[in-house]
Amino acid sequence: MASANQMGEGTLPSVSELFSLQGKTAICTGGTGGLGLSMAIALAEAGADIVSIQMKDDPRASLLEEGVQTCGRKLSVFEADVADSAGLRACFARIWASGIVPDILLNCAGINRRSKVEDFTDEDIDAVFQINLKASFVAAQEVGRKLLELKRPGKIINIASIISFIANINIAAYACTKGGVLQMTKAMSNEWASKGINVNCICPGYIKTAMTKVYTDDPEYTRYIIGRTPAERWGLPEDFRGAIIFLASKASDFVCGTSIVVDGGLIAK
């Protein structure tokens, strides 16, 4: 009897090869953040070199550097404020000029502002929209353009949220942007899937990071989250290692325009 990897046309890759990122280059925004750091290091563990777009004097830069170096991979750092669209595009121009060829984009930069709808200021609305939605669009657009120019396949992984589906209170601006990221993912996939560019997103639930500290420090809110979550715990950044490797690797070559919800079952309850 023929083995699984001998059937069909040609030889199928082994399971370990399916999930390997050896020889790949992953560009990351937000790669020093709570979720981004865990996912960027996971990409490095799977074999990818990391290109980090980060703020000048980022206080968590050393964590990413140490993590990538521990994996024996190369880290290249390019400084930019992703909220500045012109500056972000100029940063990508510097990346391409350096000779870097992209395979993967982890689009993870994000912020939140909390307020009643009627009290949101223009400053807060603009900040959330600029980083969560426009910067995500620009980064995906720049990487997509380069992949099309080079006629290369690639993986673009956006970070949305369960708030893309179940908007909470006091985070209306955030909810708008994360709903937008979900639709952006579908729209880009519709145009690029036939070119071998997979565009997908991950939708985190309630995860213990600096962004959610206001909640995780609140015993009453923690009881509420645990009560709503079938897994009966807060999520952790390391819970995203499997999802990011799947979407970045050959294992997801026929996965297009979809979202993977990582929330301990919260929105299914």
Automatic annotation (TrEMBL):
Keyword annotations for this protein, in alphabetical order, are: NADP, Oxidoreductase
InterPro entries the record matches: NAD(P)-bd_dom_sf, Sc_DH/Rdtase_CS, SDR_fam
User: Looking at the keywords, is NADP present?
Assistant: yes
Single GO MF descriptor: oxidoreductase activity, acting on the CH-OH group of donors, NAD or NADP as acceptor
The UniProt entry's sequence similarity note says: Belongs to the short-chain dehydrogenases/reductases (SDR) family.
User: What's the protein called, per UniProt?
Assistant: 2-deoxy-D-gluconate 3-dehydrogenase
Question: Which organism encodes this protein?
Answer: Capronia coronata CBS 617.96
